[in-house]
């Protein structure tokens, strides 16, 4: 079995989490107790320094790393390795007071005040300089420490800045993209509409909320630029660390299917992909099974960002979080389930936020391994310790790679374009939910799928699913055509192949760029549904019977000599007024709508679920995941049961 071992020092799975000793420097007794409790919980890693800048550099240019050195030493002496973070996720007060340009400007053009976190300008030269300085000093001080196994760059990158530095960089980015030819940009952005034509790149502003928001090309390029600029910031940090200690891998903790950044552009610049996993367990809008399915989707997305390297679950809540509307504690056993799910999906770590609850401020009630009671005698602690023991038992599985034979296409560009498209149901397009809904239906059948970009190599897959592939990147159509020509099965849906990467509609019929020939169809019309509308296709019993079984002796063939195809019967396209409609409050209907993603509903309406040998042949072979005990059914191929 192919393996990629991330941390040979650990010899198994990473089990640890965010550790904030800087909050307890006046309590050496607690710092000593931390290590003893970590050993009891089977912890072998601690992520330190994530928000420690104001303690690491209490005044400009005066660095104090000795306390951190003691912590890293103590951890290492007790068999616990360190994931060392750069502190760029939040700034010390002295920095903002002296260099206000480090603070972000919002979409109204207003400079933000000091406070919070992740609100710095990625373009600010002085902020980049200060970050590079402290990163270099940290790497020089701790890079040769045998206990330091990884760098954790900043924390949960996010957000946009509309300051003058960023606007200048945006214009430079556009000049390079459009070969310094403003007419090329005008054509790409279709700016002759509403007289939006630009004469010069210096006239272009980002999409301020009270400014230009009606040019789709501008909106999309701003999002692409924000990813480019954030990536550039992250790479600058990684370059400093690699220049001092090239042997230590770097990561940046991502946030599931986050909408603000194209993670696929960022993943190549980190050695390992990691993400923070906070499923809304026990919510009131879906079943626990559905929560778990969606979590598996998010794991698959992260796994697929860097194929060939295990990912890490850098954060998860041992008990509950503090930032949802209702913060539910995990019921007994759910913690173990969630941790082993991460491992089965390809994670080589189970890490938490946070190790110990602080006494005050924003995260004082966020779940932790060690609660305010301060002992190991809690249910949460015992469950964490149980996971530590389980991870020790399955240590040989660390480094193994999850291999799938199916993939789903998911592009951030496509997502942004669909969101911004002015048409169809403004609030019911639901690209993400559709992807997740379809992915779930396959997963229920035992088909695990990678989630890849439309321009990625598809040679290792037998099945590719392309939900709502509205935007085609250059080469996507050719990629799909080549995939089908070599025998791959391609499944697409409505809203396929409408615009190119500039969001210009294809002429000559949808799906464009040659896909209408590949699929053998032209989409002439597209409609939208009100929430109460129902529209679907049903297979008749007669048709199903004929499709599921091979032609019997004596069966009458059709006039062309082939077995008759299943006949489709279209159901009502507009539901009659629902008898409960008047009696049902609008809020309740809304909840129902949210509970049922479009894609899932679409699939459900497409026909009865296959049973037995209907649509898929299954076997009890391993499903392809890394868990030795797993014997989930694996579809090997599809029969001809489905209508062509
Ligand atoms: Zn800025």
- Overall domain count: 3
Average pLDDT number: 87
CATH superfamily of the largest domain: Glycosidases
Q: What is the level 1 CATH name of the largest domain?
A: Alpha Beta
Global geometry: globular
Strand content bin? 5-15%
Based on helices, strands and strand pairing, what is the structural class?
alpha/beta
Summed up:
By secondary structure, the chain is an alpha/beta fold. It is built from 19 helices and 17 strands.
Note the main attributes of this structure.
644 residues, disordered C terminus, binds zinc ion, four-stranded parallel beta sheet, 17 strands, 3 domains, TIM Barrel, 11% strand, alpha/beta, nine-stranded parallel beta sheet, 34% helix
